[in-house]
Amino acid sequence: MTGQEEVQYKKMTETPIPRLITTMAVPTIISMLVTSVYNMADTFFVSKLGTSATGAVGIVYSLMAIIQAVGFMIGMGSGSQLSRLLGQKNQKEASEIGATGFYISIAFGLLLTVFGLIFIDPLMRILGATPTILPYARDYARYILLGASIMCASFVLNNLLRGEGKATLAMVGIATGGVLNIFLDPLFIFVFNLGIAGAAIATVLSQCISFIILLSFFLRGKSLISLNIRNVSRQAKVYISILKTGLPSLCRQGLASISTVALNLNAAVYGDAAVAAMSVVSRIFMLMISVLIGFGQGFQPVAGYNYGARKFDRVRQAVKFSLVWGTIVVVVLGIIGFVFAPQLMAIFRKDDAEVIAIGSLACRCQSLALMLAPTGTICNMLFQCTGKAALATLVASCRQGICFLPLVVILPQICGLLGVQLAQPLADVITLVICIPLLRNFFVQLKKEEARKTA
């Protein structure tokens, strides 16, 4: 083990848990916040083009969620294994996992580009575009699809850096592109007069900058692993293990996309104002939930490293610390969202009273349910980073799949638009009920493993 590897190993397995998770979580929270802010910037600037254009952002967000799903599946699949392998001091296999994940992400991204551009109009309709929203959605989606491979690869590089405990480097790459996007949006939309296509071009250019920065860390030896193409595995089991470990992320992100489609389709029954309102609410809560996800992503490599090193007491401490502080953070955010819901909606469509009214109620309902989210998020990430892929997939599928999809279809039949607004909050409640016994059982199993280790 080299000096750099030894220092990193000691940091991840000996630093007090509260300080370690905090130092890991702060950069990832900043990364998630910047990403959410630039997504909201897209919505804000595009909203100046009209209600239909605002709705188009929500439609294409489903497509971006698909791209993210692929990127996160491969990134989390390789990053989670990377943490455990480095915890076991297995440097060679860690580089093999990292390089394999990086190159297959580029291949998957290119496939998304080709098929997405060929079937762009049918795809936009499937995602919920109305006839008035379709032209805007098509213009926005075309450029997003062209950047699919860069986006996928960036997610993988980000997760590999976090997996080895280099959260600050991951933050620099992601945050730089996000900040740049905020400045490029008005330039391309209004100064260059490119309209909604300008927002998409700004997003893709920003993602390219993030990719270059992230890749440079690996090329300059800042990472513990090598992405040399010679490290790409020729064994099918390596690819299967990456996809299997990353399946929970695919389910989480993929179901987020499907749930957004279902939300758009059910909201479209009530007009463009309903689609725009729910699109804005989704962006607001993406910002809030990103804080929790960022916290969880700071927790994940800590848990994975120490689980691989068989330091089970530190894994237990990490879970408890993350649950307590994650809950405190989202309670504060939930109160803000509940109290200032109309003002938050007005930021985007202050001249459309219907959008504000529909969005405010949905925002308040989701603010109350947000306080239940930490258990599901930490539970999902814990199972994933400790190699319990089946349980992680189940938990990842709950919030926006198993629980949400039936509700968003059934509730509007019973109580109309209110059903669309209540579907996600009720899904959060059910998800919490499912996660509690699973988490309790994990602690029981952890004690058994600890006893075997002692024996």
From TrEMBL:
Keywords from the UniProt entry: Antibiotic resistance, Cell membrane, Membrane, Transmembrane, Transmembrane helix, Transport
Its membrane topology: Multi-pass membrane protein
One GO molecular-function entry: antiporter activity
Subcellular location per the Swiss-Prot or TrEMBL entry: Cell membrane
Entry GO CC: plasma membrane
Biological-process GO terms, alphabetical: response to antibiotic
Segments traversing the membrane: 20-41, 53-76, 97-120, 140-161, 168-190, 196-219, 284-303, 323-341, 402-420, 426-443
InterPro entries named among the record's database cross-references: MATE_fam, MATE_MepA-like, MATE_MepA_subfamily, MdtK-like
Domain of life of the source: Bacteria
Pfam family for this entry, one: MatE
Family: Belongs to the multi antimicrobial extrusion (MATE) (TC 2.A.66.1) family. MepA subfamily.
Record-given protein name: Multidrug export protein MepA
Organism: Catenibacillus scindens
